[in-house]
Every structure is written in C-alpha cells, then in structure tokens.
Amino acid sequence: xxxxxxxxxxxxxxxxxxxxxxxxxxxxxxxxxxxxxxxxxxxxxxxxxxxxxxxxxxxxxxxxxxxxxxxxxxxxxxxxxxxxxxxxxxxxxxxxxxxxxxxxxxxxxxxxxxxxxxxxxxxxxxxxxxxxxxxxxxxxxxxxxxxxxxxxxxxxxxxxxxxxxxxxxxxxxxxxxxxxxxxxxxxxxxxxxxxxxxxxxxxxxxxxxxxxxxxxxxxxxxxxxxxxxxxxxxxxxxxxxxxxxxxxxxxxxxxxxxxxxxxxxxxxxxxxxxxxxxxxxxxxxxxxxxxxxxxxxxxxxxxxxxxxxxxxxxxxxxxxxxxxxxxxxxxxxxxxxxxxxxxxxxxxxxxxxxxxxxxxxxxxxxxxxxxxxxxxxxx
Amino acid sequence: xxxxxxxxxxxxxxxxxxxxxxxxxxxxxxxxxxxxxxxxxxxxxxxxxxxxxxxxxxxxxxxxxxxxxxxxxxxxxxxxxxxxxxxxxxxxxxxxxxxxxxxxxxxxxxxxxxxxxxxxxxxxxxxxxxxxxxxxxxxxxxxxxxxxxxxxxxxxxxxxxxxxxxxxxxxxxxxxxxxxxxxxxxxxxxxxxxxxxxxxxxxxxxxxxxxxxxxxxxxxxxxxxxxxxxxxxxxxxxxxxxxxxxxxxxxxxxxxxxxxxxxxxxxxxxxxxxxxxxxxxxxxxxxxxxxxxxxxxxxxxxxxxxxxxxxxxxxxxxxxxxxxxxxxxxxxxxxxxxxxxxxxxxxxxxxxxxxxxxxxxxxxxxxxxxxxxxxxxxxxxxxxxxxxxxxxxxxxxxxxxxxxxxxxxxxxxxxxxxxxxxx
Lengths: 379, 423
Hints:
The complex is a heterodimer of chains A (about 375) and B (about 425).
Chain A: E1 2-6, H1 7-18, E2 32-40, E3 43-51, E4 55-62, E5 64-67, E6 69-74, H2 75-83, E7 89-95, E8 98-103, E9 106-113, E10 127-132, H3 133-144, E11 158-164, E12 167-173, E13 177-184, E14 186-187, E15 193-199, H4 200-209, E16 215-220, E17 229-234, E18 237-242, E19 261-266, H5 267-277, E20 287-292, E21 295-300, E22 308-313, E23 315-318, E24 321-325, H6 327-336, E25 341-346, E26 353-357, E27 368-372
Antiparallel strand pairs in A: 1-5, 1-7, 2-3, 2-6, 3-4, 4-18, 6-9, 7-8, 8-9, 10-14, 10-16, 11-12, 11-15, 12-13, 13-27, 16-17, 17-18, 19-23, 19-25, 20-21, 20-24, 21-22, 25-26, 26-27
Helix pairs in contact in A: 1-2, 3-4, 5-6
Chain B: H1 3-6, E1 13-17, E2 20-23, E3 36-41, H2 44-52, E4 61-64, E5 72-75, H3 77-80, H4 90-96, E6 101-103, H5 107-124, E7 128-132, E8 135-139, H6 144-147, H7 150-165, E9 169-174, H8 177-186, E10 192-194, H9 200-204, H10 217-225, H11 231-235, H12 239-246, H13 248-257, E11 274-285, H14 288-308, E12 311-322, E13 327-338, H15 341-354, E14 362-370, E15 373-374, H16 391-405
Parallel strand pairs in B: 1-10, 4-6, 9-10
Antiparallel strand pairs in B: 1-2, 3-8, 3-9, 4-5, 7-8, 11-14, 12-13, 12-14, 12-15
C-alpha cells in the first residue's frame, strides 16, 4: 500500500474517525483504525474506519493511490501524529509489517495490527430520508440536553426519534425534564411511520460532526428482523449506531395543554440572573422564582446560609405564581430555546412547567418544548 | 479498665470530702457550681423486664440474645453478683449463673421506658443531652432558681423516676461532664454522688487510668509502660510528655482530664448523622434469597425510623461481614433525599450485588442511610411522571397501621413468615 494525501485532509478525516475509537477496547484490534486505499466508485480514495461493536464510523477522502492496499494501525497514535504534522503532502506506505508515515522531513514508523482479525463494519441500512445538516444538529442538541446519564436506566439515555411522513419528532427525558422538538424532513417514502431510540450522546456528537455536508441522510433498519440500527451519512462521512432497547416513557401524556399563567422574560438577562443567583444555591437546593405583574423575583439560599435575590422585568398573563426549580435544569432549558424571549407556561407550583421560545407570530405553536418538573420545597 | 470495675455495686448517697466520701448532709452549699448531672439508669433493660415480670423479683435476670451467638446486653445486680456482665457471650453467662431468667431484648419496651425517663429529665430543664437509651447529661444551671440546688434537683429526679416509672437511677453531680459521669458510676446502683469542685482531684487521683475518658486498652498499655497506673500519676506528668507518648489530641486531653478539667458543654440536640440497622445471623448465610429478605427488612426498619424522626437521607450504605469477620461497606449517593424503604432497598440490593459477595457466607448485613436532612425543609425534586400518591404515601400508611396494631401487623409480603398451610 502506498498513497499520498494533503495533511489537512488526512488530519480531519483521521480525527473524525478517531472520535468513535473505544477508550477501553474489549479486544486489542478495536483500538485500531482501518486504512483502505484503492479505487472506490471509479475514484482513488482512502477509507478510514473505526468500530467498537456499538458505533461504527467511516470516512472516505480523495487521494493519489500508487499501490492499493489495506492496513490497521493504532487509531489514537495516528490521530496524534497527523494532528502534529507540518502542512505538506503526507505519504503513507507499508513496509513489511510496518506502516511508514512521511511528511516533509518527518518520518514515523508504526506497528500494524492484524487486519484479518478486524470485524466487518455493519452495512448501512436502507436510506430512509434526509434533512438539512445544520437544522438537524441544532434540533438534536436542543433535545439531547434532557437525556439521562444514568446507565442503570438505559432507555432514558436515548433520544426517541419518531417519524410520521414528513415530520420527525425528537424527544428525551431523564424523568425530571423532557425536551421535545419537531422538524420536517424529506422521507424516501412519504407514508413512512417509524420509531427508534438512539443513544443521545452518540446522536449529538454525530449530528454536530456531519455539518460539513449540506444534508444528512438517515438510514433506519426496517422491521424487527434485523438488529436495530440507524445510520447517518453526509459529506463523505457515514456512521452507524446500535439502537437502545426498552420502553421510552409515554411522554405525550405528560405535556399539559391548559395553563393558569404565561410569563415572558428576556432570555439572555434571565440566563445571567439565574447563574448569578444560583451561586449561593448549594447542591440540590433550588432556585425560587416569583412571577407577578411586570416582574420576576429570583431567590436562592435560606436563612442558615448565604442568600441571593435579583429582580427582572417580566410579562405575565394570568395568576401570580411562585415556583422553584433545580437551577441547572432551568438553565439547560433556557439555553436550548431558539428565541430571544423565553416563554414559561405554568399550571400550579407543583405541576410541570413548559419553557419555549416566544413564537415568531402570535398563536403559532413552538416547535421546541422543554418540560420541567418543579422542586417541592417541603413535604 | 472497664466501667464495671469502677462500680462499687452498693447504693451510695454522698459527697466527696477531702478524706473520702461523707454523708450528703455535710454538703451544704458545696454543690453551688456543680451544675452538670449525669443520670444513668441502673441495669436498665433488666429492670424494665423485671417490672413487666414481677415473678422474677429476687432472681437473677439477664437480657440478651438467646441464639447460639447471643450476648448479654444487660444483667440485674443479682446476676452481676455471679460475674455476669454486658457484652459477655450468653453461653458463658448461663454457665456462671444457670438460674438466671433470660429475656430476649424488647427494644420497643426499652425505648418507651427510656422516653418516659427522658420526659422527666426534660421537665427539669430543656438542657438534656441524651447519650443512649439509659444515660443522659443535664445542665441544671438554669433550673436552680426554680427547683433548688443541683443536689436537690438530683434527688428530685431520682424520686420522680422511682415514683413514676418504678425504676432506679444513679446520678453524678459535678462541675464537668467527665467528673459527673465518673461520679454516677461510682455510686451505682440507686445512688447519688456529689463531687465538689474543691475535692475533684482528691476524688480523681486515686482512680485507675482506665477511668479517664478516651483511655482504652491500647492507651492504658502505653500509660502502664510509662509507670502511670492512677489518674494522679497522669496528673503528675507534664502535658508535653503525654502528647509525645499518646499523640497530640489524646495526650493533651488526658493532661486536662487528670486535673478534672473538661470544657465540653451539654449538647442538647445533636442531630443524627446517620440512621442504620444491622443483623447478625444466628448462623452464617450464603443464600441470596435470605440476604435479600434481610436487606429488605433492614431497609424497612431504617426508613420507618427516618420517617418517625422526620428525617430524610441521601446516601445508602451497605455493610457486609464475611464469616471470617472481614467487613466491607459499599455506598451510593442518590440524586434525591429519601425516606422510602422501597428506594433504600433497591439501592442496598444493587450495592450487595455489586460487592460480588453473592455466594459468600455472611455473618452480618447492615443497611444505613447517611447525608441526613430535615424532611420538612429538604427540597425534593419529584419526577415528571410521579403520581400524587406513591410508595412514600403507602409507607406512611404502613406506619399508621403499625402504630395502631403493632410493628408486625403490616409487612411487605416477602417478609411474612409463611407456614406450611400456605400454598
């Protein structure tokens, strides 16, 4: 094997592939990155692959192939090396059981891992539809923030993806808050109706890393026959991940549809004030909000410890309300909305509240909703 | 030197003078600055049992575990005459005193009696520091104007405990907690001893070093090696030497105590740092089912105690002792405070599973909840899908049923003793 490639192109591709390398590989070959140089679809290309049996990643870049071939080297080491190479043409070649990476006056000799032991990457499921890559990344990040991180409840560590024709609904919850986002996409089959539970962290990383292309193609394994898998591709990159099992909570029933109070607050001011006031809130002590006509009073701390209070301007329709939240949960919601004005809808101080951005036109539905359970101050 | 060796074993009412103990009549005004009282119930568990079983009057009585590994928790003075003492294996106690009447401990009865006594103490002054079910410190400086001198208050307490609870107690009166506690031990049972400040050293110095608070077996060996056998010997050594030999903290403290100096205050309400329960099996157990049931039973017990005291906790700790006495503890901190047995049990079970001792023979299991907070003020983050009423409410109802019909009236099905008739 012997090929040449520009340093920046190589470094980007290697870095992206290396993201999914397992930190503690269950078998040594999984620490490897597979390099496959040759003619693919009539072009000289290098395919880089990594796989840990959960997530696979593969990127394909244009190169000059002198001698086609396949080799497996330590992915971490290759990523470190390519990141630090000078901005010149890199030549990679095999020399017996070694791989030589030469760039400018620098030369590295790497050991290889047995290619024949490397598992075959799963095939991409059949294309299901596509969506704009920036819109997709933004939507995923809005939802993934509410996903659980507790591996003992695996179904809560995922983002539920529901496809109904042209509408995709993303939802995740850690039981204390719930984020729901609707977006439109272009399905291959306009009659399609499907659901999948995708690991939230993988989905968020993937969506963010696929913004190099204009569109993301999504491929969902159909039916119950094959092992559940979803694939994403765009800009020469493709990645697959295993789906999570388990029952996602029936979240639609949790979303209230009538409210007693609706408040509107400037988002950036609100976020700054929450950060300031919650400085005195010790772990697990809540931030208290009191909405009344024209103003919002934020308070934290009790008589036994440091206290803080701040007053903001706020619009309020309906009843005055006092309510308390975990400040980290509140901040996650405020940061996720895509409007300068945060709208908060309440029923009572013990029932979930909904945070949305103020819709562009009155009466329109917000496409992103963040449901947050208040803290009870005493039993 | 253990406490029982300091006890004289015969009732005493007196005051320490320059040359020994005199009758109390000579105590006029000697108690002016002796505002600390140490109240110690006499053979408490055994006395409560004798009250409930009048037929045992005049017989040696032992309270303790009756199983193969039972130990004595309390013995009346008749039994002590045979050499029986607490913490002694029951097998040995019965060899010494075969005629003893043995009762298994009845915690609820002792707690009720203890609370009644504590109520008497709290009616004297709110400055009550409860040390255990049968011991408390009182600071009576605020009660003197209303009730008289410390010795009069001590007499009043002894009288009321005898009249109202038919139990006896011993009271030590002194200016410090350390000396007051020694005094009550010295006059047991059914005694009262005042140690006036001017005679503290005369009282203390002849005592063996083991009488000093904080001197256990190891420190006693160190002191003996230095040729120090009595408190007076310790008082004669410079504090620097003691610190050098016993470490800074203990050495410094003994130098003070040996002169009767102890600046600890009576601390009224020390909030619990943790609530726990543990069980030593009659025989070592490796049956996962049995251990799961025991963890559930202990979780129920801990949660019930949390709820009864209006507390919630955040960290669940499991203690597992193998047959060879090696002990491991595992803990996990929850996202939320809890007083719900179901939640405590779930975490405790996971900790047990994760400890990798599922086939190992265990001698003891314990469940403990730490990170205690006041349930009334601890904020609680409910989940979105939490019903208005859930396990928390169900367990509160169980508490009410238990209060009305007794502790065993309602139990999780897994803890019900099945008999052969059950299918």
